[in-house]
């Protein structure tokens, strides 16, 4: 079941398509503990695309889920936190250690 989440991530790969972009990113879940997440961001209709590249640090907000031990995120909102420099790339330990925000919602019926 997907949950809503916000993460600060380091983009490691990016594959642009016509209506969406996808790839892999790293986030720091605990001190010196890094996780890989697979992400997909659909471009908003009628709005400019957010241009970012591997090596950039972004804030992702969207639906988060884990299936067979693999983490996935469908990004609803993305914002650039830091722009990577190919001559001086970010190191993984420069990703802020942000406590992940995960929001669960439940529906009950009588």
TrEMBL record:
<protein>
    <submittedName>
        <fullName>12815_t:CDS:1</fullName>
    </submittedName>
</protein>
């Amino acid at each position: 079941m997907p949950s809503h989440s916000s993460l600060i991530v380091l983009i490691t790969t990016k594959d642009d398509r016509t209506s969406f972009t996808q790839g892999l990113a790293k986030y720091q879940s605990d001190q010196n503990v890094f996780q890989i997440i697979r992400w997909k961001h659909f471009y908003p209709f009628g709005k400019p695309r957010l241009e970012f590249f591997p090596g950039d640090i972004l804030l992702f907000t969207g639906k988060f889920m884990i299936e067979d031990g693999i983490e996935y995120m469908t990004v609803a909102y993305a914002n650039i936190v830091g722009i990577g420099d190919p001559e001086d790339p970010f190191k993984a330990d420069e990703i802020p250690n942000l406590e992940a925000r995960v929001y669960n919602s439940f529906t009950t019926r009588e």
